[in-house]
UniProtKB/TrEMBL annotation:
Domain ABC transporter family G, chain residue ranges per copy: 45-99
Gene, per the UniProt record: ABCG11_6
Membrane-spanning residues: 151-175, 187-208, 239-258, 264-285, 292-313, 381-402
Family membership noted in the UniProt record: Belongs to the ABC transporter superfamily. ABCG family. Eye pigment precursor importer (TC 3.A.1.204) subfamily.
Protein name, per record: Abc transporter g family member 11
Main location: membrane
Domain called ABC-2 type transporter transmembrane: residue spans: 135-346
């Protein structure tokens, strides 16, 4: 089935199980002929010398640690150099298995194997799982590689952000300090906070696939929920930071927002944190609703409610008190993103009314207080801190959801196993006596066959 799809990478788990040496050779030689244009990785149990010679590369492991990884043709020389020469009339695969397998090891032999592993920089340790730090690092690296290779995960979104940033910069190019620029600056901020963060839901399909892999590997006990959350979070941060800095810089400087590196860094930090929040929100949705279409609809709906209640499309004082003001306005992360960016942009500026020639001026603080109804009792850094706090809460929610799902799945699995064992016991006790009909011995019939 897998070969028919012509995958670039094919995994096979003991394809020769239950076959004799001749059948094993024909199967493996057939698989070997499929190698052109693809990589085939297979685990194999006690291969014959003929089957062993079909392999190009070999990985030998003992107690969970690598003893040898390299060309199969060089393995005999490697073992011989390190004091384990292969006898002339013995199959190399049998010799390797006898040397590294804990079932064959003696105390002196174990010490020699440890010397081999030390040459590669690692010592064999008897442990069933990698530690938490190793799990997190491996998952982070694997997720980063997947994101880098998958064009649709971040690279297409990066290209879209660049195009949109160029559009914003050309529409609001080099705004001045007139009264009209107040509205333009506000619209620019609103678009960045609302719609550039909204586009982050585009990563939902890829995350659903990640969740499927996690559920399978977590059920097999390879790693825990916390390591997965950490790995997924750390791997996405560089890409989101890149999206925040490059398209953010294009839109910010083309528009002509406040000069100063500190103002731009704050702008990029708010954009980065907001996109992280949306990704975390979609992760929560994926953990609860793994269906692609339903997840997109639910995630977009939650985003839409937060945008509407954030305090821009309807000013805070005009929001209906029930539901929209309390509690949605204070729960929406857009409120703090809007107000933080408004403070960053308007604080310290002065705007002049040149339309009627009276040169009337208004300060940025008055614009914040009267036009945008921004809460001036705390600084923009408090708004950013609240955004970071919201991000942490969303990640904790995600961890609790998948942890709860893990316990439910393990409970169901355990219950199913108990019921299955009990059913077999009942069936074994209740089977009626069967006539032998000429069979020579009673052991010719077993409950398993029945």
């Amino acid at each position: 089935m897998e070969i028919l799809t012509r995958p670039k990478l094919l995994f096979l788990d003991e394809p020769t199980s239950g076959l004799d040496s001749a059948a094993s050779y024909y199967v493996m030689s057939g698989i070997s002929r499929q190698r052109l244009g693809r990589t085939i990785i297979t685990s194999i149990h006690q291969p014959s010398a003929e089957v062993f010679n079909l392999f190009h590369n070999l990985c030998l492991m003992s107690s969970g640690r690598t003893v040898y990884f390299g060309p199969a043709s060089a393995a005999i020389e490697f073992f011989g150099t390190n004091g384990f020469p292969c006898p002339a009339l013995q199959s190399p695969s049998d010799h390797f298995l006898k040397t590294i397998s804990k079932d064959f090891m003696r105390i002196s032999n174990m010490n020699q194997v440890l010397e081999i592993c030390q040459q590669g920089g690692e010592i064999l340790e008897k442990r069933s799982h990698a530690n938490f730090t190793t799990q997190s690092l491996v998952l982070t690296r694997r997720s980063s590689v997947n994101m880098f290779r998958d064009l649709g995960y971040y690279w297409m979104r990066f290209a879209s952000y660049v195009v949109i940033a160029l559009g914003l910069g050309s529409i609001y190019y080099n705004v001045d300090s007139s009264y009209g620029s107040i509205e333009e600056r506000g619209l620019m901020v609103a678009f960045v906070v609302s719609f550039m963060t909204f586009m982050t839901v585009g990563g939902f399909p890829s995350f659903v696939e990640d969740m499927k892999v996690f559920q399978r590997e977590n059920l097999n006990g390879h790693y825990g929920c916390c390591a997965f959350v950490i790995g997924n979070t750390l791997s996405s941060m560089p890409y989101l930071l890149l999206i925040s800095l490059v398209p953010g810089a294009i839109a910010y400087f083309l528009t002509g927002f406040q000069n100063g590196f500190g103002h731009f860094i704050y702008f990029a930090l708010v954009l980065f944190t907001s996109m992280m929040i949306v990704e975390s929100l979609m992760a929560n949705v994926a953990a609860i609703v793994p269906n692609f279409l339903m997840g997109i609809v639910i995630g977009a709906g939650i985003q839409g409610l937060q945008i509407l209640s954030g305090g821009f499309f309807q000013t805070p004082n005009e929001l209906p008190k029930l539901i929209w003001k309390y509690p949605l306005y204070y729960l929406s992360f857009h409120k703090y993103a809007y107000q933080g960016m408004f403070k960053n942009e308007f604080d310290g500026l002065t705007f002049t009314d040149n339309l009627n020639g009276n040169n009337h001026t208004i300060s940025g603080e008055d614009v914040l207080r009267d036009k945008w109804q921004v809460e001036m009792t705390y600084s923009k850094w408090i708004d950013l801190s609240i955004l970071v706090g919201t991000l942490i809460v969303y990640h904790l929610d995600f961890f609790l959801i998948i942890k709860t799902n893990e316990k439910v799945v393990h409970t169901i699995k355990a219950s199913t196993s108990i019921l299955s064992n009990r059913s077999r016991q009942i069936m074994g006790k209740s089977l009626p006596a069967l006539p032998l009909h000429g069979l020579t011995s009673s052991h010719d019939i077993s409950t398993d066959n029945v």
